[in-house]
Amino acid sequence: MAGGFLPYHEPSIVQILILISFFLFLSLAEWVSAKIIRAGLIGQIAVGIIYGVPLADILEHNWQETFLALGYIGLILIIFEGGLGARLDLLKQNFVPSLLGAATGVVLPIEAVETFIIGSALCSTSLGTTFAVISSASKTVDLAQTRVGSILVSAAVIDDVVGLVFSSIIGDLGELSHQNHVNLGWIIGRPIVASVAMAILTPLLTKYIFAPLFRRFIEFHFARYDHISNIILMVLVLCAFISIAAYAGTSVLFGSFLAGSFLTYIPSKRPESPFVVMSREQGEREEDKSPTFVHTFEAYLMGVQAYLMEPLFFASVGFAIPFVGLWTGKRIWRGVLYTLLMAVAKKKRRRQEEAKEPEPQTGSATAERRSDETLKPSATWQSALLLGSAMVARGEIGLLIIEIGYNQTDYLSEEGFITGVWAILLNTIIGPVVVGVLVSQYGHLIGESDWGLQREEDVEQRGDSHRH
């Protein structure tokens, strides 16, 4: 009530030790699983299963709900960081193969399973896992700066937007089973129209309105306050985008990616611009320069995201897995079968990429560099396998969709729900493990190939050659 207060109670020693052990094991499990299977998120999911409702239920229920909310903020930050670090020139250059990859991931699962709800859950690509995989691979090769990485990010975003559109439809289908006066066209059309509208309007408004205004009237004032002005703008933009996405009827995760991409584009790229700096230290040291938004994210948010929010997110995924109910012979073989079907559906992307060998680049300097690279083995199949494997993980989005279908509608049986969970869980484990092995074995090769690190001038040359 207004004017009241929350009485302060010292937590018991048992509660304190439980919380300490939970966060300790989250860190240890991440380190162990990263060393053994090259996928640290699997260990964090396992800790969530053990400490949460699915197994030992050690954490109090209200704690689990709090961690789930904090973890979802961690997921938003993961995707926001992905948008901040995205190479927009690469995303634009590789939009068509990304669209083909996303279409493969969406259409094939829906055709391969018996129910629309399970198919919708399995059409998604875990954005959180995708960006976690990209981050974990950065010590070997910065996938965010590679051609295959840009295709992966674009395809994963498109997949999840479609999956979350389906989740909105499925959630509203529950109303259909309980009410007679429901507008089916509005249920299906609203999330689709909202997603398409945001995808089209955001780059147009950014390029022709917000970027010119920011560069002319605001940009040079940021050098005075450095990180403070950056973090305020970042928070405002992120909150604005996820609020627009939520109220429009599409996914807040899509909104968070668009927010990061928006902030990446609006600063001027001219040498005299405050945001054109060689390092974070230069932006902080020189009076007429400012750290970039990526630098501010690293300074203010990277630590809390990496050591608190992200582990809580993957632990909360573990909270949502009905672990005990998975272990019957019938459910196991069905789950494994669906896992194989879904893995094959996603890895069909590999065949498409192998058929799309990058075209030779023109220009004397580039041709000379290409002649040197002819001595190296092709990395096409490794890049295609990396892309297909990274898109196998369904993760949090798949679990969200299938739980909406099970808890909010009467159309999904318990057996269908368990089978779908098996497929989502195994795919989420298999994908990052295979990616980790591929990056450790072929990361440098992929980074040096045509599917690897891309210089901006090479991307522009390729775009000009395609236009001509």
UniProtKB/TrEMBL annotation:
The UniProt record lists the keyword Transmembrane: yes
List GO BP terms, alphabetically: proton transmembrane transport
Q: What's in the keyword line of the UniProt record?
A: Antiport, Ion transport, Membrane, Transmembrane, Transmembrane helix, Transport
Give residue ranges for domain Cation/H+ exchanger transmembrane: 25-344
- Give its localization: Membrane
Top-rank lineage group of the source organism: Eukaryota
Q: What is its main location?
A: membrane
Return the annotated region ranges for Disordered. Answer: 351-376
Q: Which PANTHER family match?
A: NAPA-TYPE SODIUM/HYDROGEN ANTIPORTER, SODIUM-HYDROGEN ANTIPORTER
State what protein this is by name.
Hsp70 ATPase ssc1
Where does this protein come from, organism-wise?
Aspergillus nanangensis
Supply the gene name: SSC1_1
